[in-house]
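Hey, resending since the last one bounced:
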Amino acid sequence: MSFMVLKYILTSLFSSILFFSCSKKGQVKGELEAFQSQIITLCLDSMEYVERGQEIDSEINAPSFQWVVYADSLVCSSCKLSEMYKWDELLRKVGMYGEDLKFYFIFSPSTEDRFGFDWTVRTYAPEYPIYIDTLGIFERSNPHLPHNPMFHTFLLDENNNVLLVGNPLENEKIEEMFWQIVEEKLGKRE
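The structure tokens again:
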């Protein structure tokens, strides 16, 4: 194979990788912009609420911030539920903000995963409240919610506008931005 042919092949391969990489970034950016341009309907009262045997308190005022962690029927809900311990440290820190900052864990287990999910709920007994959306109400109420799971963890303001998208447990920059947004509005608390 001549040097020119090899150079052409490598240039074509690199150009293709670059093209697909850029188009993927453009697609993600477009999904993010569309997602952030509309409000989120939480519809929590239409879901089953589980919190170690406690009843849900009816909220009079909307919190200043709401962090939503959503596991749709395409992911293993029981797997996600068994990983909730990973949120412990962040949720302890968030606790200092009381009712001003709420976390909502919403699970929409698939029919195939429902038995395993129910078993995990009973045996794991999550420390934090969870919402179980067996009817897919959350997704139907928010058709603009991207199917990509990287968009299924997000911060809302008091009007349910999306302020930040991403998982602070997986991305240090997302966690930094989260605290910056919260402290800007609610102040720094120790």
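The chain has one domain: 42-186.

Sorry for the duplicate.
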